[in-house]
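cache lookup: miss for this entity combination. No prior model stored, computing from scratch. Input as submitted by user K.M.:
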Amino acid sequence: MASELLKAFQEAYRNLDLLPLIDPKELEKFRVDYGAEVLEELQQLVEDDDSCNGKIIFAGHRGCGKSTLLAEFGRQCSDRYFVVFFSISDTIEMSDVNHINILFAIAVNLMYEAEKHQVNIAKSTKDGFYKWFATRTQIETEAINTEVSTGFDLLKSISGKLKAEATIRREIKREFERNISDLVAPIEQMAAVIQAATKKEVLVIIDDLDKLDLAVVKEVYQDHIKALFQPNFRIIFTTPISSLRETSLRATIRTEANDIVEMPVVKLFAKGERRKPDPIPRPEAEKTLCEILRKRIAPGLMEDSIAEQIVFYSGGVLRELIRITNKCCQICSRSIRRQPERTDIVINQAVLQEAIKDLRLDFEVPLGKVDYQILQTTYQEFTPDDPKDQKFLDLLHGLHILEYQNDEIWYDAHPIVIDLLKRKGLIHDT
Amino acid sequence: MTLDVEEDREIQNENAYDDLVGAIEASEGILSLLIAVCDDSTLRDQIIDRYEAELQSQMRCYRLPIIRGEPSLRQTIAQAVQGDEYLEQGGRAVFTVTGAEQLFFLKLGQERSQQEIFFGYLQWTREGLREFPYPIVLWVTNQLLKELTKKAPDFWSWRKGVFRFASRKTVMVSNTEMVPLRSTLIDLDITELDEEALLPLEDLQALIQQTEQQRGTQDPLLASLYFRMGLIYTRRLERGEAQDYQAEQAAAIECFHKAADLQKALGLEKDFATSLNNLALLYESQGRYEEAEPLYLQVLELDKHLLGEDHSDVATSLNNLALLYTYQGRYEEAEPLHLQALELRKRLLGEDHFHVADSLNNLAGLYESQGRYEEAEPLYLQALELYKHLLGEEHLYVATNLNNLARLYESQRRYSEAEPLYLQALALRKRLLGEEHPDVATILNNQATLYESQRRYSEAELLYLQALAIAEQLLGKNHPNTVTIRKNLESLRQAIASQQQTSTSEPQD
């Protein structure tokens, strides 16, 4: 039988899940207010947009809480807007994303959300839309005619097809490539019908576009941004932070989008503070991050001041915060399994150090000689020699280097990477 | 420099094991992506057996190999889940996914390699995997882990844990009966062979005959004609174009002999050295090592004398001599020569040069022969990267390198990593040389020894037979490689026979 203590650690392990908080039940349980400024900024932009068709680009580091925050934002807006929040990966096979199927995914998810909220749409109108979908995705129309209430099923099978069948995606691309308006027109009609029925304006939020390869991102945003932004309603697009470090891409996005919102890593320390012998974190940032832990791990499983240290090692990245704590739970569970009679096992200094050692190995895996040089320079100068160097962008992408901003943008190595650099003798305590 | 004190392997593995089991147990009702790292497939299988035995009272254990045709983690799991009554009723389970290390990383004429497809899918599986609320243990090798972090960064960032299992220190494989074969490829620098400037073989033969008749066999012009013809024969041997392998080998030797004699008489010292070198390479490919050695020594002396010590040709001579010593088992003599060659090449040609890759590859081969496996691997990998980068994937050097690396893994008992390398090397050589070439036989033989080590006897026998048929036909019955293959086949058959004897006379309980 598993002891109570083991059960407690197992529950913490489950609670320390890395996936974004999207499910309402999870949100309820684990939600911590963070990123208030970012939420406000988004709110402001959406509400101040008199044109009602503003396009916002939302960027941030991997694992800094973008998806959770966007889901939260969607919920906040849902009483005033008809919010369509979806992950591009739930509709399209990610290796084959392009501007056309992003638009097509918007159409599918508009109708999906309408079905979910049982928006009152005239049967003939609905039929018309579904017939349009069915023809485009080569689904037998008879199946629809026989049972119209199967809107959900139809949309699901369309999603399935878009994910699984490359030929359908090619066909859609071929059909609309030359005349994008043929695709945008029905999308706008759907939005109009929904707005009319719900009396709410449509707000589409597309998550996980930031997971695309940089090359794909470039193609989508650089070459087809006008098409992508054509639908006349509000849309928030996500993009990887590294794409905004590409001068020409950034310029294109700047010109076309109404605004770019960047979600910074939680800035735990003022620039340079971390280099001091006893760095003092910014209290409000530390408090937020500790709060996240408290929601997920029972009190008493952790010694005093360990939470603060985990926060320190996370570099302000939420997912890494969770990961470190999760590893600590694994180590404690191991001890309990070996010594079931002990009841005093908690996450202490030794456990934390073992967890950090493990994660240090993970960070070390992809690094080569040139990477170490870049890390060294970034640590010393708070900026690399060349912020446009692909190797640097990759390190940024892989969280080895974190970007912080207040009045200026500055960079620092991830705290665990700093640890690694010290061990390798590449940097020294000042 | 402070480095982590290396923990005892056993302790490390036990910790990793307990953490892995703990993570599986704690993952009730949620998706947990657990990455287990192990290079030794035997050890890996033992670990899987162990945790499955320990967990089976709590949950059902599914073991799934990645499908080479559709290498998608999601697909692999979806197939297992679909229509499974136990799972549909919400039963607890753990999925163990193996075989990723066996995916091909070469494209082999396709748009993307199997490995690229696998990582491509993996990058986006997090969302797709959400519907599977189970712990999923993906087994990879250290090398694959590195690729994974780079090519599927998003998947990597969703990992719930990495569990590292260190391989046992390997012992030298003592099965002297099963000797893997070296390549017979003649390492001539055929880049100097200008296609357009070459007369067809028949025309050149006619021209030589004419010149000999009209101007005698000592005519200076003949030196370059013989030399050219020697090159053509050699190139035909290398590219698998020879009609009769042994006859053309002999013809090439005769040509270079004649060329060398004339060049010497005419005082063309540099050309003379080149002919001697080519002769030595040919002798070596015939297994006539004793005859090759004095020639290489002579070439080295000539090069040093003519070009000075600091010349890339000197590096080539050092390299060739070192290779010969390696073949002969004179390892202590070979190492300093290889190191000198490598140093010279890096200095004179730059790090990014395929001759540097050659040296790395050859040095790795030497270390491997000495059982210095840990030193050999990074060198082979560096060489492979350089070749792919400089020559492209579709190149014989890439195939040779894969073969070497596979042999190394085999020596380290990393069987499941070795197999796909042999398969890719074989596919490349068949594409580039055709089905019937001594180097195709070499890989077949090597692959057979791998299967033999894995006790896959019937597959091994089939491959030995194929290899032997090719070798006998192209190299002759008495070529060292042919003899080796025949011996390997015989010892395999003995092993099969003794196994059958044990199983019939002493039934196991």
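stored under new cache key. Strands of chain A lie at 55-60, 81-87, 201-207, 234-240, 259-263, 401-405, 409-413.
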